[in-house]
Amino acid sequence: MLVACRRRCCLCYFLKGNQEERRGQIAHLNKRSDDDRLENLVWLCLEHHDSFDGNTSQSKGYTLGEVRHWRDKLIETLSEAVLPAGQPMARIAREVVAEAETDPAHRWRFPLWLIANRPEFFAYSAPGADGICTIERIDLPDGRIVIACVEMPGNPGKSITNAAEYIFRQVCERFELSTTRVVWLENYEFFDRDEWRQVTFGVDGSAEPEWTTMTPDMWRGLLLSPKRRVTASSAGELRSKVRKHFPWPPVEMALGLDS
User: Which of 23, 22, 41, 45 is nearest to 32 (CA)?
Assistant: First the structure.
């Protein structure tokens, strides 16, 4: 988080126009000090940290949603400033967002799972702010289906964490997947930090989501391992961020026989 925000306080940056590095502390958006998910952290100057995270937060009126909004906007702003113009993920994200804004029908084109080892763009609907991510389907030998959902730089809507239950349901409904077979993985890239978490939605897929940071044992249990960075082919097509330690794709998929 310190690297992502470069020690800029998001409230100072946008509400007071102060874009300088500030002395401050990391605050937890949900006020749970044991929840160190990157999505739950925000760097605030000492004054704003006290007004949001301290006992006086109610009187000062900074809400969780407000702070999260400015935190996400700050990271997006600073990311655009430092990402190389030719970085595939950032470039493609901007192109997809631009097309979605000019062509409403394009926003709701869904991937067809025709090519293994290639993530597909997925436009999802969420209350207040629709967004775009990438998803990849991986069919495990034991019958489970892994969906790797990756947050995109330039995502114009809610993050994949804040919209997790909506993306999960829309993917399962669109591709007629049994929620009991799906293993949902969530990935973020923030500069030099790469996070993978498994998200569970209860036995029937309708419970509130819960996040667990992926461990080596969890990866081994899926016969998978993570790649460090998103890469693209010379044609600009995204490559998978997940290594498969079993024959993939299955023969029937390679022959076009998968139903």
Answer: 41
User: With a threshold of 0.70, does the pTM exceed it?
Assistant: no
Residues in the chain, overall count: 259
Q: CA-CA distance, 224 to 218, in Å (whole number)?
A: 9
* Integer CA distances (angstroms), 111 to 4, 133, 153, 165, in order: 30, 12, 19, 19
Q: Could you give the C-alpha distances from 67 to 49, 126, 223, in angstroms and in order?
A: 11, 19, 38
Q: Which residue stretches of the chain are H helix?
A: 2-5, 10-11, 46-53, 57-60, 64-82, 88-102, 164-174, 216-222, 251-254
Q: pLDDT tens-digit profile of 205-236?
A: 778 899 999 999 999 999 999 986 655 555 55
Tens of pLDDT, residues 6-48:
889 999 999 999 988 888 988 888 888 777 777 778 889 999 9
Asked if 236 contacts 193 with a C-beta cutoff of 8 angstroms, the reply is: no
List CB contacts of 220: < 8 A, sequence separation 6 or more. none
Nearest-angstrom CA–CA distance, 64 and 46: 17
**13, 70 Cβ separation under 8 angstroms:** yes
Q: How far is CA 131 from CA 19, 38, 187, in A?
A: 27, 19, 15
How far apart are the C-alpha atoms of 171 and 174, rounded to whole Å? 5
Cα angle, residue 107 at apex, residues 103 and 112 outer, rounded to 5°: 125
The full set of domain ranges for the chain reads: 2-82, 88-254
| Contact between 92 and 239 (Cβ < 8 Å) | no
* 80 within 8 A of 97, measured Cβ to Cβ: no
